[in-house]
Specification:
Layout: H1 11-26, H2 31-46, H3 63-67, H4 78-82, H5 85-114
Helix pairs in contact: 1-2
Length: 116
């Protein structure tokens, strides 16, 4: 089976991918990128192509669909998504440094409390 062959997917999975792809195209994502994201979402949700055999069913995880390709979490992130990758990276580094600083402060506060 060549790479990218969709024959091992069920009809339901193909419909899901088609629907997800349309959603991405509606959001002005290119057709090839929309197709790539759609199949990635279907794979993440259903665990890949259909598999034969009894007891092979696993519950579907719909969390990837809920995220919908947004950057910055399930609720919003549009402002973050509009910014270039370099700006998001800079912001993430700044946030990580702040968390590190606060963690050091908190661990110092714990040590002083224990001495009492």
């Amino acid at each position: 089976m060549p790479r990218g062959d969709k024959s091992s997917y069920s009809d339901k999975q193909k419909r899901q991918a088609e629907h997800i792809e349309e959603g991405y195209e509606h959001r002005d994502v290119g057709s090839k990128e929309a197709e790539r994201r759609a199949w990635a979402t279907v794979n993440k949700e259903t665990g890949g192509g259909k598999k034969s055999g009894s007891g092979r069913g696993t519950p579907e995880n719909h969390e990837p669909s809920k995220r919908g390709g947004r950057i910055g979490g399930p609720r919003g992130g549009k402002a973050s998504a509009r910014r270039p990758a370099a700006a998001r990276s800079r912001s993430a580094k700044k946030a990580a440094a702040t968390r590190k600083r606060h963690a050091v402060k908190r661990s110092g506060a714990r040590k002083t409390r224990r001495k009492k």
